[in-house]
Amino acid sequence: MENKNDFRNRNSICVVVVLAAVCCIPVAANAAYANLAAPPGWTQGASAQPTFNAAQYRASQAANAAISSASWSSAKTVAITSSVSVGGKAVSMPLSLRLAAGAGSVAARAMFSNPWTAAAMIAAPYAIEWAQSSGLFFSTDLQAWQLRENLDGTIYDCGGHTATSPMAACTAYADAWNVTYHNGPQQSSFWMKVSSCGQTACTAEMRQGSTSGYIEGYSSLGFTVGVGGGTNTERNVASADEFEELIKAKPMPWQVPNEVAAPYPVETPVINPDAYQAPSVFKLPTGDPVAVPNTNPQQYKYPQTSIKPSATTAEPLRVDITTGEVLTTDPNATTTPNPQAAASATSTPTESDLCEKYPEILACAKPDLDTPEVEIPRSEKTITYEEEQLFGEGSCPADLTHTLSNGQSLKVWDWQYACEKALPLRFLIISLATFGAFLIVMPGSTRV
């Protein structure tokens, strides 16, 4: 039997339900924000742009061969991994970082301050070539960057090929060598590519098969200066600012960040990137499938945690973690992270495979259509529609009038004025009527 308190509680709940339906009060969801662990080499200041040092990341992950080879790609991106705590366990999360504006300035300053050796220069051909394309070269004797200024038309001769820079002259020589010995009747398997130039000679790589083939060895190409009476002027670069200004005259090759270690500025990370480098939800099953009673075909459900990227400028590694359940007809549904990604990697079943496995489904049915051979009669009809108000548009009655014996008409009641005053009460009356109807159909008793 229901007492007064139970009746009041039930009515209070009804009020909340009705008000929620009428006023659209949101209901809280089971979700929480978290931040991925900062990967090695990652730096995030309070307001500064984040930076990433791939060399530092590779050094910290040297024991893991699967991820220790993280390098910048031609798209100026690098793939790394981080982790987030879910239920007290660390879950690995893939990340994709892209170089941001200003990466060239960081590389230039790192190159200027780097104590270059001959071996280091050979190991960084793209960085050295980038500098030489702007007339910069490093003197190992002076341990300083120098600018070779060609103000008086200096000509460089490399094996009979002349140009206004050693790199251009020896590259022309290498191109002619490749035409004669690689593509020509000699049919050599080597391909010559000039990688760097010093004060008196350029170094050429002898690659196997093509410009991207394996380096089998090196060849020194000497050049002469001043052919035609020209002279050469060289001076030390005064500062990092000057070096940066000079070298940035040419765009930075994408390979340079792999050769020059530095904390490069990066854009907001792409968390769990898909095939199009867009962030995607990371789905983590947290239990085995359990049969759902009284379902045909038999269904199964299992708990799953979804990790949704929710990065902001202030929190670039933020994710939104929610929990829920997944329904499936497979009793052996995968319990590895991202089952959707694993499924998409497999081949999609064709229509014939589907019909062989489920011949009784409607999609595989072969309908026997009784289509008449004669032409089907056709007719045209015009259908119109108009918007309808949910609660009706409503209208005021006509004003109440009275006609006197002398024929004069008097207004007894002004309905238009009354309707204008009552209009604000319309919503309240409808809400109260809805609430009253809800109490009528609710089970219960008012007896004490």
Give the averaged pLDDT, no decimals: 77
Quickly give the structural class: alpha+beta
Largest sheet: 5 strands, antiparallel
Quaternary structure annotation: single chain
Write down how many β-strands occur, each being a DSSP E stretch of 2 or more residues: 22
* Poorly predicted parts: 11-29, 336-353
Helix content: 25-40%
| Rg, Cα atoms, Å | 39 Å
Report strand %.
Answer: 25-35%
Categorize the overall geometry. Answer: elongated
Provide a quick synopsis of the model.
The protein has 448 residues and is α+β, with helices and mostly antiparallel strands. It has helices at residues 4-23, 54-60, 103-113, 118-123, 125-132, 166-182, 240-247, 256-259, 339-345, 351-357, 415-422, 426-441; strands at 31-35, 42-43, 51-52, 77-86, 89-98, 136-139, 144-149, 156-158, 161-163, 190-197, 201-208, 215-222, 224-225, 233-236, 264-265, 270-271, 282-285, 290-292, 299-309, 318-328, 400-403, 409-413.
